[in-house]
Design goal:
228 residues, mainly alpha, Cd81 Antigen, Extracellular Domain, Chain: A, 2 domains, two-stranded antiparallel ribbon, 7 helices, 2 strands, elongated
Length: 228
Amino acid sequence: MAGVNKCLKYSMFVFNFLFWICGCVILGVSIWLRVSKNAQEEFNIQGMNSAIDLMIAVGSIIMVLGFFGCCGAVRESRCLLLLFFIGLFLILALQITAGVLGVVYKPKIEAEINKTMQGYLPLNNQPESFKDKLYTIQQENKCCGLVYGYKDWLNSIPQSCLCTQANDVNECVTVSGKLVYKQSCYTVFVDSLKNNMGIIIGIAFGLAVVELFGLGFSMALYCQIGKK
């Protein structure tokens, strides 16, 4: 009977050891962010506990799968390798499903953002704390208002909506003798969402390639052990 390929066996072990380390790092950082108030203030992540909890779950799952893969490779255990394969396959399937849903529901997400922003109109009626944050957003992103531009402020256009540099002229419109940014902040938010989605899709694609290698390693080793 043919023996198990040593190169494949130890490649599988190294792959899963790195996989396990990644899980440890994700879990450790997530727990630190969850329990440390100083970390939440430093990174400005208050109110993102749900996302951090999800990271804790992901880190834990990766650690368990990495453990199964390492032990399965070293001990040549078909049971552990099969558990690793099934777990990694389910993660890959969830990634693909999430990607498809993201593409399908993208227009609905943008429409929901637009609807939510319209609920804040007119902006003059919002509390000062809300307006202060919006002033900063408008100044940093060279935009004005949330949906319809400067019209969202009615007749009280704030200073943060005014163009302050000569090269901003093409981005502005004249209102009551003043140059005001004509782009609404909704456009900025949607563009940011699209850019972030592009980054997430890129990361997901890279992870999918790595996961396919893991699936191939585990199944090849599983079959070799069965033939031994």
